[in-house]
Specification:
Blueprint: H1 2-22, H2 59-69, H3 133-142, H4 151-159, H5 162-172, H6 179-192, H7 199-205, H8 212-222, E1 251-252, H9 268-271, E2 280-281, H10 303-312, H11 322-325, H12 336-347
Length: 364
């Protein structure tokens, strides 16, 4: 009897503790839902851009785009991300003349910077072959000279990771991973990469002063070329690089080659119009001191070479911009001191904050 009673008590105690263990609540599981928190789009004193109405900037969508921008899974062999050819420390471009893709082969044109894309209203790439930024975002993934991957494979890779399916839910409301959503997320992130805090911006805000040389360079930059009054003639840079973003949303032939020497048809490759032969996108001059080499083919290694080209190296061709054709007879008449002053002003367009802002860097 005593043995039976002892066994009964022992079983009762074990059952009691087992019940208490079973009653311990499991840790709560995060419920992932659509997050429509608006992204705090900071543009400084730049004018309000025309952001896409069908792709609202939300914190979740921008974060997804940031993840994709820095993820090597978008490339065929897992060796490259978008950020490898658009490095933050180089103002989101590549300092190689031609970027090297996953096959070890060079691209055909110099990598373009991807900041201030929100103020780009005339299509994308040097030749404008991508209508919207979301279109541009997915083409390098598929280019055999770049990331050399199919969108189908990228979608499969992302679907296999819980971190990504959760983020697609936060960004879009469900876990569907699609080509379109990848483009929209990358577009959202790149739209937020804004450069607005250079010395020049601080000068405009009254919080910094230009040196005597920088101010003279600014005046040369903004003053029109005038061969009839050489002493007051300027470099006429604002003709192509005007406005708050230092560009004009046009495609132009800037006299790099004669018709016979021209090896890249430029805009004509996208439009099929012979009037566009040799024309390329006019790029922003913001952060220009950081983004060598220069031109669509990276032929110039220094800004001094660029200035010399416009001062005395314009080549004639059928589609040469008329304003540049007008300078060919005499050049821009810039003295050596003019060139120094102009160069010093261009350096005031550098935004050091852009190079280190955490929200533009890798999330991994």
């Amino acid at each position: 009897m005593r043995l039976s009673f002892f066994l009964f008590i022992s079983l009762f105690i074990l059952t009691l503790f087992s019940c208490k263990e079973d009653e311990t609540p499991a840790p709560p599981t995060e419920v992932v839902v659509l997050d429509e928190t608006p992204y705090d789009f900071r543009r400084g004193a730049l004018p309000a851009p025309n952001l896409p109405e069908d792709n609202a900037l939300t914190v979740a969508k921008v974060q997804l785009g940031r993840m994709l921008f820095y993820d090597v899974k978008l490339s065929k062999d897992g060796s490259q991300a978008c950020a490898d050819c658009h490095r933050q420390e180089n103002a989101f471009t590549d300092t190689d003349r031609f970027s090297i893709g996953v096959r070890g082969l060079p691209g055909k044109r110099q990598a373009m910077s991807v900041f201030n894309m929100a103020w780009n209203d005339n299509e994308f790439f040097w030749d404008g072959r991508a209508h919207l930024l979301r279109d541009q975002a997915v083409l390098p993934i598929q280019d055999e000279l770049e990331m050399d991957e199919s969108l189908e494979n990228v979608v499969a890779k992302l679907r296999a990771e819980q971190e990504y399916t959760d983020q697609f839910i936060r960004a879009f409301g469900d876990d569907a991973v699609t080509d379109d959503r990848i483009g929209l997320a990358l577009e959202a992130f790149m739209l937020t990469i804004v450069s607005h805090n250079s010395k020049y911006d601080k000068f405009l805000a009254g919080t910094a002063e230009l040196t005597e040389s920088e101010e003279r360079g600014r005046q040369l930059f903004e003053t029109e070329y005038n061969p009839f009054f050489p002493e007051s003639s300027g470099a006429d840079c604002q003709h192509c690089h005007g406005g708050a973003n230092f560009e004009n949303d046009l495609y132009m032939n800037n006299g790099l080659d004669t018709d016979a020497e021209m090896q890249d048809d430029g805009r004509m490759a996208a439009t099929g119009d012979s009037a566009d032969r040799g024309k390329f996108k006019v790029t922003t001059l913001r952060n220009i001191a950081l983004t060598a080499p220069y031109m669509h083919d990276g032929r110039f290694q220094t800004l001094e070479e660029v200035i010399d080209h416009y001062n005395e190296g314009i080549q004639p061709s059928a589609t040469l911009d008329p304003a540049l054709e007008n300078t060919r007879a005499t050049g821009l008449l810039l003295t050596e001191q003019d060139k120094v002053d102009l160069l010093n002003f261009l350096h005031t367009l550098t935004d050091e904050d852009l190079l280190t802002r955490e929200e533009f860097g890798s999330p991994f």
